[in-house]
């Protein structure tokens, strides 16, 4: 299962929900996902810290929206297990300004 966040802008408080994967992943695996936030330059460092604290070596790139209201992060990291991935996704989706994870 992968945690997918519910947008606090449209659905009330952000609550991670589970959704089924389309294909089975053999762990450990390198996985790439995106996370969207309201714009705040501190998110990059915070996401980096979450990956380090959970032992997930990875890369983070970002792209700001045209009017700089939002910022999307592309996160690629090595995950030991599905629970490892879910734990990190839960930490990221709990950050202030979180909108969506996919």
CATH topology, what is it called? Alpha-Beta Plaits
Write down the overall mean pLDDT. 84
The largest pleated sheet is described as: 4 strands, antiparallel
Structural class: alpha+beta
Q: What's the SSE pattern?
A: EEEHEEHE
Going across the biggest sheet, name each strand in turn.
Answer: 4-5-3-6
**CATH C-level category:** Alpha Beta
Determine Rg (CA atoms, Å).
13 Å
- Gross morphology is globular
What are the segments in which pLDDT stays under 50 over at least 5 consecutive residues? 1-14
How far apart lie the N and C ends? 13 Å
What percent strand? 35-45%
Number of structurally distinct domains? 1
DSSP summary: helix tally: 2
Task: List its salient traits.
single chain, alpha+beta, two-stranded antiparallel ribbon, globular, disordered N terminus
Explain what the structure shows.
With 102 residues, the protein is an alpha+beta fold. It has a single domain (2-8, 27-101), classed as Alpha-Beta Plaits (2-Layer Sandwich). 24% of the residues lie in helices and 36% in strands. The protein has two helices and six strands. It has helices spanning 42-53, 82-93; strands at 2-4, 17-19, 29-38, 58-64, 70-79, 98-101. The strands form two sheets. The chain has a four-stranded antiparallel beta sheet with strand order 4-5-3-6. Strands 1-2 form a two-stranded antiparallel ribbon. Strand 4 and strand 5 (70-79) form a beta hairpin. It starts with a strand and ends with a strand.
């Amino acid at each position: 299962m992968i945690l997918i966040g519910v947008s606090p802008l449209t659905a009330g408080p952000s609550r991670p929900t589970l959704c089924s994967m389309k294909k089975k992943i053999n762990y450990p695996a390198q996985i790439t996902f995106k996370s969207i936030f309201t714009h705040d330059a501190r998110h990059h460092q915070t996401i980096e810290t979450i990956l380090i604290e959970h032992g997930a070596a990875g890369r983070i790139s970002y792209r700001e929206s045209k009017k700089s209201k939002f910022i999307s992060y592309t996160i690629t990291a090595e995950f030991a297990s599905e629970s490892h991935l879910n734990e990190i996704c839960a930490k990221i989706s709990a950050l202030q300004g979180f909108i969506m994870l996919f």
